[in-house]
Recover the amino acids of this structure.
């Protein structure tokens, strides 16, 4: 979820709960003016009839204007053809939200604002005393461990602000989501709420109380919980209208603290805000040992405090530049077709908007560029820049108290800092996901440069799920096995940082392990996690294992794929011990023709089809050895076309028999059973069974 700006002239100061309502009034007036113009035009004579355009001879043959010549040159140099330009323009018309629907959404948002401000207050209680919650609502996070210090009571939000891409004009159909931030009053929060999930517990209780009262209102047809970008510590409340407008919009409520509530120095990536003794349910050791840092936990706190600054930044950059807005919309379509923007660690639409803002600030994109130019420039940047090595920052301050980029590289695999210089926008993105984005950007740039006739169709109109993008697919299920993998890999600090999310904790080490083992056999290894579905407010929140499966995609490199030998160091080298530890029982000493004695791993593969499936042996062996994941939990898909590539094993010679027809001409009568038998051999591995049936032939 990324913030998008409300108009600056409608923004109130802190403590003004009418921010959302005043912002929506401006859009409503503009919509009314346009609707009045339409009614005036509709009342003109000849309504519904196409009138011929009368042009004089001078107008008919006049020279093109400078603007028309510029448009023709731009079409020739950038779009390669007028058809591509028309396709892009038509796509933008399809994904934009119409003014008529905006008016209905604005009216619904005003009603939501009024309902939220009328939610009653509650008396103050301990955080662990949740008896005041009614039976029809559950706290939307897992409170593990349950014991935590602090007190809580509910007060109406100090401010209700529309954030996200709706008011900016970069949201795209068909799923229209409007993000609304509810600023929690300072009276509810305490100084040490940043420790041990106290703030996240209060945030969840705040949302549960709002959900209980809004669920009874007939205005809403659906009131459900969901995780914000897949983060299980940050639920959001989804509101949908009642009746025919139920699919019009989804309003997502996000409680957040006042912008300057947390001390920034306490949320640096090297700081710890989750105590080991509390998380493990033990008494403090008192030996003075340092606490492990919690960079992801700190980032999730900073994300809630930075909504206002992100709104202001995007408003200043994208506010009046229609080309930038079109470019962001095209980039969102590009990400959605490749399923790169979903769930925790996805390359979201908010993130790509911030990338565009960075390119504008560094003058690699100009505000006068068209949407297609913004798309090309951003894809070129993603294809040529490796943020896993050299991070970027929207902060141009020389304040010595700010952390350096190197500090963030030690804590996160991908680094992109916001304008404060303290928040890593790519904190949840893994190296594999970023390399997949890079790979897709390179393919897209090559497609655009090739001037192919179907370039637009392949770039923005064709879905490209993982099954289409990769050669081999690996499914790991059940996900509960990853909990044992975390213990085997000793990922206790990561579990403490991620609030017990063992899937996220194990994901990075597992992909690194497999990349090291597969080596030159793979060009790219990526992963995909199904998004956690929303749930009813009366249900318990989903567990980490509930999505059911973790999918890995292998893009193979033909050059090293079929090698049956993993050559290690010589036996007397110090690296030999590491090689034996990595490969376990598969490593053995071998003497080669040059007389060298080396550690080596030899894979069993007799035919070329078996050699192409050596990655299957590598994956199952390494997961069982290092992550305690048995081969029964590894479901490997690959080599499905090998049966066709190998050709026929046996082909029947009897395809039919010659008979003489009544006219005296020889005719071939096909042998149906023999032909069906050949089909069975041809489709071995793809077809379960072929039933032959006998028929009488009359000639």
């Amino acid at each position: 979820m990324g913030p998008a700006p409300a108009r600056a002239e409608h923004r109130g100061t802190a403590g003004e709960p009418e921010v959302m309502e005043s912002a929506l009034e401006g859009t409503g007036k503009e919509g009314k003016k346009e609707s009045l113009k339409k009614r005036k035009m509709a009342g003109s004579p000849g309504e519904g009839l196409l009138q011929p355009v009368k042009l004089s001879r001078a107008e008919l043959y006049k020279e093109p204007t400078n603007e028309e010549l510029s448009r023709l040159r731009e079409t020739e140099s950038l779009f390669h053809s007028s058809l591509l330009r028309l396709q892009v323009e038509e796509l933008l018309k399809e994904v934009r939200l119409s003014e008529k629907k905006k008016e209905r959404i604005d009216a619904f948002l005003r009603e939501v604002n009024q309902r939220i401000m009328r939610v009653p207050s509650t008396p103050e209680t301990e955080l662990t005393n949740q008896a005041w919650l009614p039976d029809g609502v559950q706290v939307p996070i897992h409170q593990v461990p349950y014991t935590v210090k602090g007190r809580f009571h509910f007060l109406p939000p100090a401010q209700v602000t529309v954030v996200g891409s709706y008011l900016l004009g970069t949201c795209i159909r068909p799923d229209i989501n409007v993000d609304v931030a509810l600023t929690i009053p300072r009276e509810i929060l305490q100084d040490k709420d940043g420790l041990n999930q106290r703030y996240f517990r209060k945030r969840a209780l705040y949302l549960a109380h709002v959900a209980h009262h809004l669920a009874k209102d007939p205005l809403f047809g659906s009131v459900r919980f969901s995780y914000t970008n897949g983060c299980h510590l940050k639920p959001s409340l989804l509101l949908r209208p009642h009746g025919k407008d139920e699919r019009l919009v989804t309003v997502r409520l996000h409680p957040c603290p006042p912008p300057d509530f947390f001390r920034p120095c306490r949320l640096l990536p090297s700081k710890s805000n989750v105590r080991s003794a509390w998380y493990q349910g033990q008494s403090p050791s008192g030996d003075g040992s340092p606490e492990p840092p919690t960079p992801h936990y700190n980032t999730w706190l900073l994300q809630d405090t930075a909504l206002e600054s992100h709104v202001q930044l995007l408003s200043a950059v994208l506010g009046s530049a229609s080309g930038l807005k079109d470019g962001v919309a095209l980039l969102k379509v590009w990400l959605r077709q490749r399923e790169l923007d979903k769930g925790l660690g996805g390359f979201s639409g908010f993130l790509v908007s911030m990338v565009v803002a960075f390119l504008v600030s560094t003058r690699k994109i100009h505000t006068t560029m068209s949407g297609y130019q913004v798309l090309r420039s951003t894809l070129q940047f993603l294809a040529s820049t490796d943020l896993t090595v050299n991070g970027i920052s929207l902060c141009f301050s020389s304040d010595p108290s700010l952390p350096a980029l190197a500090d963030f590289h030690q804590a996160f695999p991908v680094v992109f800092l916001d304008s404060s210089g303290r928040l890593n926008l790519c904190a949840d993105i893994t190296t594999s996901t970023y390399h997949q984005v890079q790979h897709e950007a390179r393919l897209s740039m090559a497609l655009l440069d090739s001037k192919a006739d179907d370039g637009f169709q392949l770039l923005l109109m064709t879905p490209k799920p993982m099954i289409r993008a990769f050669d081999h697919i690996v499914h790991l299920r059940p996900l509960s096995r990853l909990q044992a993998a975390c213990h085997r890999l000793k990922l206790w600090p990561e579990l403490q940082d991620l609030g017990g999310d063992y899937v996220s904790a194990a994901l990075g080490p597992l992909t690194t392990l497999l990349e090291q083992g597969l080596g030159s056999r793979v060009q790219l290894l990526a992963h995909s996690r199904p998004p956690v579905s929303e749930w009813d407010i009366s249900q318990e929140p989903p567990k980490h294992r509930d999505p059911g499966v973790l999918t890995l995609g292998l893009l193979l490199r033909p050059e090293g794929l079929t090698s049956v030998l993993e050559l290690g160091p010589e036996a007397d080298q110090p690296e030999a011990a590491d090689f034996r530890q990595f490969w376990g029982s598969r490593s053995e000493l071998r003497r080669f023709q040059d007389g060298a004695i080396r550690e080596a791993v030899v894979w069993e593969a007799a035919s070329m089809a078996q050699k192409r499936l050596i990655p299957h042996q590598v994956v199952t062996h390494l997961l069982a050895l290092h992550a305690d994941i048995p081969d029964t939990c590894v479901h490997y898909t690959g080599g499905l076309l090998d049966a066709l590539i190998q050709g026929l094993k046996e082909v029947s010679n009897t395809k039919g028999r010659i008979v003489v027809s009544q006219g005296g001409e020889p005719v071939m009568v096909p042998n149906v059973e023999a032909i069906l038998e050949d089909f069975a051999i041809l489709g071995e591995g793809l077809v379960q069974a072929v039933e032959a049936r006998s028929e009488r032939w009359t000639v």
